[in-house]
Specification:
Sufe protein. Chain: A; 2 iron, 2 sulfur cluster binding; nitrogen fixation; GMP Synthetase, Chain A, domain 3; 2Fe-2S; alpha+beta; 3-stranded mixed beta sheet
């Protein structure tokens, strides 16, 4: 496939003066990936000639950092004029190389751009997205499939590389062991296929978790009589038990002043809420729709979700999923 040659300053060019920005009204292939709730999102719109199966035009909209904007803009230049078959062969590694390289912590921008291409081509072929892909990271909505493709494309052999390329594990770190499991499984398959040497394959437990998992917790005071010990006439107060960060509870506005929208809109929101409940129930939690007021969705958390230290993360994840399903800005508000 004939492509433009990468240059060292191309990253800056695409960020400062991004090409092909905006809506493509005549698009017949659209791929959207990410979500505003996760901090990064790309919508790629293509016009493909059905006769020649060549991409005649491409536009994009993105929300995120400078690297994400540059990667999305670069993708449009890489694919305009190319055949669908040629574009299918573009990898996230190709996108990063085209830009002249990306910082390690911004490699996920190339991965998101690649996923946007694949979703647009799948939409063109009339393929439906999988109803539910196993989620690897709830904080950033990263599926196991996305992580696996990144591992294969970039020859990843370290959990922290997976975080850099997908953002999985970059939040609460609760999915670290799951990342290890996926990485070890994919690396083993790569070794069997001859794509990776056995000595390079990841072994669970061989790399320590991130710094947030290993931050100092504080040491117990030295025993009395030891050098530097607390004098015997001073009584040490017991260390208080950690208190879970409770989510603020907000009272609903009066029923007569709430804007619930049309019955169809309310039913759509109710259906979207029902679709996210199984994820919470797997962790012993749950939620129920209390009411709707304009763009505010009032939810009541229950089970393990009540006063959980990660309740704010859970609500952000629910909000991101609902925005994706409803395709309009909504705000999730917890109520008691």
């Amino acid at each position: 496939m004939a492509t433009l040659q990468p240059t060292a300053d191309r990253f800056g060019d695409y960020f400062v003066n991004p090409k092909h920005v905006g809506v493509l009204a005549e698009a017949n292939a659209i791929g959207a990936v990410g979500a505003l709730g996760y901090g990064d999102a790309i919508k790629l719109m293509l016009r493909i000639d059905p006769a020649s199966e060549r991409i005649e035009a491409a536009r994009f909209q993105s929300y995120g950092c400078s690297a994400l904007i540059a990667a999305a803009a670069a993708v449009t230049d890489m694919i305009i004029g190319q055949s669908v078959a040629a574009v299918e062969d573009i990898s996230s590694a190709d996108i990063a190389e085209f830009l002249g390289g990306l910082p390690a912590e911004r490699m996920y921008c190339a991965v998101l751009s690649y996923e946007a291409i694949q979703r647009a081509l799948a939409a063109y072929r009339g393929e439906r997205e999988a109803a539910t892909e196993p989620t690897l990271c709830k904080c950033f909505g990263v599926s196991e499939a996305v992580a696996e493709r990144a591992i294969r494309s970039h020859q990843l052999t370290d959990p922290h590389q997976v975080t850099q390329h997908t953002k999985a594990g970059g939040g609460c770190c609760g999915c670290y062991k799951d990342i290890e499991t996926v990485l070890a499984r994919v690396n083993a398959a790569m070794v069997s296929a001859g794509a990776l040497r056995a000595v390079q394959a990841y072994r669970p437990g061989s790399v320590p978790p991130s710094a947030t998992e290993r931050k100092p917790r504080g040491d117990s005071p030295p025993p009395l009589g030891a050098r530097g010990a607390v004098p015997s006439h001073i009584t040490m107060a017991p260390r208080p038990a950690p208190v879970a960060a409770a989510m603020p509870r907000i009272k609903l506005p009066p029923a007569e002043s709430r804007d619930r929208g049309t019955p169809e809109q309310y039913a759509q929101i109710e259906q979207a809420v029902q679709s996210v409940r199984p994820t919470l129930q797997r962790d012993g939690g749950d939620c129920e729709l209390v009411d709707v007021d304009g763009t505010a969705i009032y939810l009541k958390l229950s089970g393990n979700c009540v006063d959980c230290q990660l309740a704010s993360v859970t609500l952000s994840g629910i909000q991101a999923q609902l925005v994706d399903k409803l395709q309009r800005p909504m705000r999730v508000v917890p109520v008691s």
